[in-house]
Design goal:
Layout: H1 5-10, H2 16-27, H3 34-37, H4 39-48, E1 56-60, H5 69-72, E2 79-83, E3 93-99, E4 102-105, E5 110-111, H6 113-124, E6 137-141, E7 159-165, E8 168-176, E9 192-196, E10 203-208, E11 211-212, H7 231-245, E12 249-257, E13 261-268, H8 274-279, H9 284-292, H10 301-311
Antiparallel strand pairs: 1-6, 2-3, 2-6, 3-4, 4-5, 7-8, 7-12, 8-9, 9-10, 10-11, 12-13
Helix pairs in contact: 7-10
Amino acid sequence: MLISPLRLSKLGMLGMNCRNRDFIGRYNRRDLYPLVDNKLLTKFLAQEHNVATPQLQFVVREQHEIVKIEQQLANMNGFAIKPAKGSGGKGIWVITHREGDHFIKSSGAEITLDDIRRHMSNTLAGLYSLGGVNDEVIVEDLIEIDDCFEGYSFEGVPDIRIVVFHGFPVMAMLRLATHASDGKANLHQGAVGVGLDLATGRCLNAVQHGMPIEEHPDTKRPLKDIKVPDWHGMLTLASRCYDMTELGYIGVDLVLDANRGPELLELNARPGLAIQVANGFGLLPRLRQIEKLNRKHYTQADERVEYVMQHFSRLD
């Protein structure tokens, strides 16, 4: 369905050129990009600032180290393998458990130790990295999906993308894996995007491939019933990522672990615009409102969260 430019303007939609010029270019210092483009650096930075992330188990930096991974994985039943410099979910393998000599991925596929070694070797060679540069392999704890998401995500862990501007969370969506997305929470691959009300964490709207939907395509659960627990904690964690990185305009990807609560997955200095489609309205009015705000009065994450929960609710 085509929407006229006038209609897009009325919805307050932020376009790519405006995003790049007025927000990314103006408020994100280029020298700070490595802090978010490299997941390993992000994890170390989060540890320094007491921002919760999945526990790091080990890092593979050189091809010869791959020979040793059998011993390193010996006592690990479930884990995640990630390229440090990857983007868009490429190269991420989630191992849920083991059956004998085989490792079982979140999709249900069985792989061997040799498959893992081959995947790590390709990762180090830069197959999944930005610009094809040499990379590192991160192996970290498996995320245990909170019961509140049961039936809402198919063969994958749901995550929450929050756009943060000068420390103010301005828009949020829940991303739910589907069969079409191969168990990944990636909207371009067919995941479901659920717009979330900033005051409550409740579902506002849901889309797949840019089209409105009312139930999960695989599990058939109604999406309107979604309400993310510990929502204030989620927003506060996202807000603190601004203080941690000093980047003015960022996308914060969070997960809710059943045992550990909200955790930071990764950060993005160039967050995409599909979050607007998931919410059914645009970012621009909220961004302009924060620009005009005397932000010196909002130095703490809690203060910024209280502001957006009060001013940016869509369920009043």
